[in-house]
Amino acid sequence: MSRNYQLTQLETLESEAIYIFREVAAEFERPVLLFSGGKDSIVMLRLAQKAFHPARIPFSVMHVDTGHNFPEVLEFRDRRVAEVGVQLVVASVQEALDRGFVQAPPDGTRNRIQTPVLLEALEKHQFTAVFGGARRDEDKARAKERVYSFRDEFGQWDPKNQRPELWNLYNGRIHLGESIRVFPLSNWTELDIWQYIEQERLELPSIYYAHERTVFDRNGMLYAANEYCVPKAGEETFTATVRYRTVGDASLTAAVLSDADTVAKVIDEVASTRITERGATRGDDKFSEAAMEDRKREGYF
Amino acid sequence: MDILRLATAGSVDDGKSTLIGRLLYDTKSVFTDQIESVERASRDRGDDYVNLALLTDGLRAEREQGITIDVAYRYFATPRRKFIVADTPGHIQYTRNMVTGASTADLALILVDARKGLLEQSRRHAFLATLLHVPHLVLCVNKMDLVDYSEAVFEQIRADFTQFAAKLDVGDLTVIPVSALVGDNIVTRSTAMSWYEGPSLLHHLENVHVASDRNLIDVRFPVQYVIRPQSDLHRDYRGYAGQVAGGILKPGDEVMVLPSGFTTTIRSIETADGPVEEAFPSMSVTIRLTDEIDVSRGDMICRVNNAPAVTQDIDAMVCWMDDAPLRPGQKLAIKHTTRSARAMVKDLHYRLDINSLHRDMAADHLGLNDIGRVRLRTTQPLLCDEYKRNRSTGGFVLIDEATNRTVGAGMVNEAR
Ligand SMILES: Nc1nc2c(ncn2[C@@H]2O[C@H](COP(=O)(O)OP(=O)(O)O)[C@@H](O)[C@H]2O)c(=O)[nH]1
Ligand SMILES: [Mg+2]
After folding, report:
1. Dihedral over Cα of B279, B283, B289, B294: its sign
2. 3-class DSSP string for B229-280
């Protein structure tokens, strides 16, 4: 903190996020924090701890588990949740498939069917405010979203009709069945996240750092060959030094070639990269120009 | 490195989105896949050149109609600063979205098309920016390439604007001739306008001094959340969490808690990273007091001899943002700092004509996007300051109790 009473960029972002966490905890009866074990949700969990220190985090965390996981991430998720001492609710896509609540699309991907599973879990547990780790720098539809994103009883986002959001006065009033998605990391960029991880010495699942992996090339992206993502004929596997920039559904998230095996090296890499996080790694957003907007309208984060 | 928040303003097609696209592009903040997607979309639309506005106009409807509907937030950084940019819509029906973007801005970029000069909507936005007390204004006279980079055209618009601005409460004004499309005077100074001696836009954004914009004098700490750990380790712990809205707080300071008026001293100021010696705007901290007094969310910690007004009668400028009009007698929910109450519209004093700044005293309602001076009576006292003195303790929102929509933005005029 400098003597000219000016906060640095990370201090400003941290303070804003803590304010948002406290505001939601004060005004909603049942908030929940989405925690996947990915880097943004790890930062969120740390911010939530800070917001209520020395008390415990006054809400549960939830993971919408597509069943297509990286084992390192699941292991990390459970360990972190135990360390922090929060309760974990798992909404399982596999379980929803097994009981016929959702049907898998022909290509086997589970991103779209994740949304009804999420909405069902919110309803079942009566969660009215849901913290998500989405950042506005991730996608052009996200760039348009408010910090408090109002969702109707179907979880839908109406981008043409958002509530005005002035100063830091958030309107959390809802009717029964409606909900608010809350994005404390709205103003953070990928680089801010990594600088914060460095500053806070946050541990991450190992797959965020450079490691050797058997991969194959599909549409210019490198996918790990595993049970969820099987190379087709003509897609040759090879060993490469890679890391993950985002961690989502294991069948849809690609790795990037990288030697960055420490936080400092990742920061250098992120600062100089010429491709966005989602562009480099997410098969799910490439389908159309407005893929994210369409999924958000349906109730996705 | 600090953060500068800026918002665009101006009429439709004056080039706001293009300017932001240009800033992002020329500071190398646009990623290859983003620019490829914009190139593809521009080609599909049959544009002659890459339409940089598509970098911020991300919604399907916006691309179809070629307009900005809602605020897009974009981020870029130079070695000097991180910038949070709110690219706002110019259409009058989306004024509420412009106001959303401007409410948190340190600086407003007001664009004018050099061929058209000052339009009603440019005046309107300049007025709104000053009403919202955005501390720094930059008038960008854009599309200079279409007027042969004429100094005379620039000077005329500058004179018109300065004349209009004289009637407003403008803190700091800078006027820059630019071409967003071509990139003149955006990142580097243009050779096409040798008559212009000022800085490029980016140079100005990097150097504008914002430290003195916040109020470091009047101590204001709205209590947001009471922290009481239910654990053996912290049995008697009671901390008041919140974000500093004004002034500098230190342990040992004698303070007063409103609305009760009890006085005590600050025992410590804490964060999860340990105690701090000082807290200033906009730090989120937890304050512990020496005496056990009753303090809850919505209360305000201030200094004994420097307190905000404690009042149920609010005189404020209101920007109305809903299709259903505001009328005297109406009841609404009000949210101010961390305090929520109900409010009744006692009186509509006047509606402001934004072009002429004429006050229509006969007005009996405020329609969508109207601005007027109203008197409210609240169910509980608000702890407020004049908005001009403190944006955090002077601003409030009005919410329709039936629809839950945010319908009005208010700025306290006089709080005595
Ligand atoms: N010739 C020229 N055209 C411009 C300039 N800036 C913007 N435009 C064009 O003006 C139109 C409106 O721009 P846009 O950025 O969408 O305006 P907005 O409505 O203010 O966001 C587009 O066709 C732009 O290409 C400029 O400096 N020179
Ligand atoms: Mg625009």
Report:
1. positive
2. CCCCCCCCCCEEEEECCECCECCCCEEEEECCCEEEEEEEEEECCEEECCEC
* Gap between the Cα atoms of A221 and A275, Å rounded: 12
Quote the CA–CA distance of B299 and B307 in Å, as a whole number: 12
| A26–B242 CB contact, under 8 Å | no
Give me the residue spans of the domains in chain A.
9-192+290-297, 204-285
What ipTM was reported for this prediction?
A: 0.94
Task: Look up the CATH number of domain B221-303.
Answer: 2.40.30.10
Substitution target in A22, A148, A166 with the highest count of B β-carbons within 10 Å is A166
Provide the residue type at B102 as one letter: A
pLDDT of residue A2: 46
Report pTM. Answer: 0.93
pLDDT cut 90: percent of chain A above it: 59
The reply to whether residue B404 touches residue A174, judged by beta carbons under 8 angstroms, is yes
| Binding pocket residue ranges, ligand 1, CB within 6 Å | B 10, 12-18, 53, 68, 90, 142-143, 145-146, 179-181
Name residues whose C-beta falls within 8 Å of residue B50's C-beta, 6 or more positions apart in sequence: B35, B38, B39, B42
Q: In CATH, what is the architecture of A9-192+290-297?
A: 3-Layer(aba) Sandwich (3.40)
Is-same-fold flag (B221-303; B309-414)? yes
Give φ, ψ of A138 to 5 degrees. -75, -30
* Token pair belonging to B109: 């970029």
H or E element: which one contains B332?
Answer: strand B331-336
Instruction: Specify whether domain B309-414 bears CATH 3.10.180.10.
Output: no
What pLDDT, in 10s, does the model give residues A196-221? 999 999 999 999 999 999 999 888 88
* pLDDT for the residue A280: 65
Nearest chain B alpha carbon to A56:
B229
CATH number for B2-213: choose from 3.40.50.300, 3.10.450.50, 3.40.30.10, 3.30.300.30: 3.40.50.300
CA of A157 from ligand 2 middle (Å) equals 22
CA distance B80 to B316: 38
- Output the CA torsion B383→B385→B390→B395 (10° steps): 70
Query: What backbone torsions phi and psi does residue A226 show, to the nearest 5 degrees?
Result: -155, -170
Of B41, B216, B391, the CB nearest to A289: B41
Query: What pLDDT sits at residue B336?
Result: 98
Does residue B38 register a pLDDT over 70? yes
**What confidence category does residue A287 fall into, taking pLDDT thresholds of 50, 70 and 90?**
very low
| Token pair 């983003």: residue | B34
pLDDT band for position A104 (50/70/90)? confident
B187 CA → ligand 2 middle, Å = 20
CA separation for the pair B87, B106 (Å, rounded):
14
Cα–Cα–Cα angle for A237, A243, A244, nearest 5°? Answer: 100
pLDDT at B416 exceeding the cut of 70? no
Q: For B162-198, how does the pLDDT look when each residue is reduced to its tens digit (9 = 90+)? A: 999 888 888 899 999 999 999 999 999 999 999 999 9
Residue among B100, B22, B113, B12 at smallest CA distance from B321: B100
- Rounded distance from Cα A215 to ligand 1 centre (Å): 45
Residues of chain B with Cβ-Cβ distance to A279 below 8 Å are 31-34
Spell out the domain ranges in chain B.
2-213, 221-303, 309-414
